[in-house]
Amino acid sequence: MKLQDVINDLEKRYPHQPEFIQAVKEVAITISSVYDSHPDYSRCNIFERLTEPDRTISFRINWEDDQGNIQVNRGWRVQFSNAIGPYKGGLRFHPTVNESVLKFLGFEQIFKNALTGLPMGGGKGGSDFDPKGKSDSEIRRFCYAFIRELYKYIGKDMDVPAGDIGVGGREVSYMFAMYKNLTHEYSGVLTGKGVGFGGSLIRTEATGYGAVYFLENMLGVHKDNLTNKRVLVSGAGNVSLHAAEKAASLDAIVLTVSDSKGTLYDAKGFDQEKIDWLKKQKEQRKPLEEYVAVFGGEWLAGQKPWQFEADVALPCATQNEVDIAEAKQMHENGVKYIVEGANMPLTAEAIDYVREKNIHYAPGKAANAGGVAVSGLEMSQNSVRQYRSFEDLDLQLHRIIKDIHDSAMRAALACQPEDAPCIDYMTGANIVGFSRVADALVAYGILN
Ligand code: NDP
Ligand code: 8G0
Asked: N or C: less crowded end of the chain, CB within 10 Å?
């Protein structure tokens, strides 16, 4: 089937899954030259096969709140492709979670994981459970109930979940404990575990640090670096705060962080002391706004960070957080580099706009792959029952990100005009990730 026919079919079959269709279209547009030059891909119908998950498990979660009421939520695990390794990808707990969101995330995860060069397939899961305002006991009961269902379908060589939005170290620990209890087995079935019971050093930092390493590689192509670059970060979660921390340590001036309530702006920049305060504040689930009373700066309720002049934008919160109007705002404010820490934070129109304006743009699939890469390293440490040092793992993270950057750049340069003003990392990353998975499927014949 032709790429366009696959898209037409998906649009007909899944009209209520706009995020999924958006992610598929982005890949289709960028791989068409490779698809046309590899007759095996269309002979084996690779694209149609890769746009339908191997399976989606959906289930109900009953849990008891602090008042003794029985609450009901929905949970899913989308096992998208295990062509090159066990299904791997995070679990998201957020009221906006639905099948479309998880299918877009699982689909992108296939190619991202392939880009890391580690043996991992793609998957994603989660629940429409809202952790906000829940007590620790409620979170614990929910996590236990969630894994009581999901444990049947996961395993260290089968499907290895981790955290994502709304799921951090605390939640992973509860889920790991329940899995261990139900299976009588101590295995690396989840990543992002606490250091000391199977978790890997630098996993917490890896996504944000990795995104900044990717940016350093991009700047390096132009013999430039981060010193004194003004950086706008969105979000104040795991990815955002570690991206801010690494950028600040490389002498960039990080001007903003944000959350669903608004934006925090500090013209002096967030240094390590301020970032440590922000981490603690978020850990205790207290408002960002309180920063102003301690350090100064400004709290802009209900606003996003893109209204400030800057050199770099790092959207690290959630999908479609930057629309075309906000992309225009970035351009007008002098932003030259956009590196996606979040998954699909730019709408399709915003991506078209920033590419047209020759802003250097790195897609999440390449730029935020550091997190899942260190998850892959956690899986191998668990398999050999050994821990590696922070320095060793940071070096490995640097190497993996550089490999992703360089291979995406090479693939892009091979198919873009010689005088193109920007490296088309989006096309390059999709081609490299897609080809690795497609080649495995061709080798397998007709089975997945
Ligand atoms: P966290 O839950 O730690 O933080 C999410 C942050 O984004 C919070 O500040 C949250 O604000 C904000 N946010 C979430 N949803 C919305 C929304 N709808 N509108 C406005 N703000 C929002 O998640 P992570 O940092 O782990 O994940 C952030 C992004 O990075 C996601 O796209 C995730 O898929 C992606 N990612 C994460 C990886 C990881 O290792 N954690 C790896 C690769 C990608 P509030 O607290 O107010 O809700
Ligand atoms: O470690 C993981 O498997 C993981 C967790 C959260 C997000 C992601 C991602 O790559 O988007 C991966």
From this structure: C
